[in-house]
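Query structure, 129 tokens:
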């Protein structure tokens, strides 16, 4: 039931209220543009965080299907932070430029990622990760 209420709320906010004030073509145009911008931004973020030099792509062991490294080390080695000092790069994708922290601490509010990143980096250096 909560799922249906959430979907109806989204439809009301994204289409219902705007349609009270604007014609259908304006609502559709702006919804399309904002969706396209969000898709491009998230695509770039994921490319910069996972598909660049420095990010590793380890494969599981063939006989056991398990990874050689522990979960947290795997997350650190297969993700990269980027533009850590850029306010725009932090604001636009919601601090997803701190991918390592995002993967290690998914339940912590993203506004804490810049502070956490310094601790993660120091700990990684200490343990050679």
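Result returned for the query:
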């Amino acid at each position: 039931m909560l799922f249906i209420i959430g979907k109806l709320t989204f439809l009301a906010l994204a289409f219902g209220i705007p349609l009270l004030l604007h014609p259908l073509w304006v609502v559709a145009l702006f919804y399309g543009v904002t969706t396209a911008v969000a898709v491009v931004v998230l695509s770039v973020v994921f490319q910069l965080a996972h598909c660049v030099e420095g990010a590793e792509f380890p494969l599981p062991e063939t006989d056991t299907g398990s990874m050689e490294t522990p979960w947290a080390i795997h997350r650190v080695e297969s993700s990269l932070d980027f533009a850590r000092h850029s306010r725009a790069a932090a604001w636009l994708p919601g601090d997803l430029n701190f991918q390592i922290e995002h993967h290690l601490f998914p339940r912590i509010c993203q506004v804490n990622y810049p502070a956490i990143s310094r601790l993660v980096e120091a700990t990684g250096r200490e343990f050679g990760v």
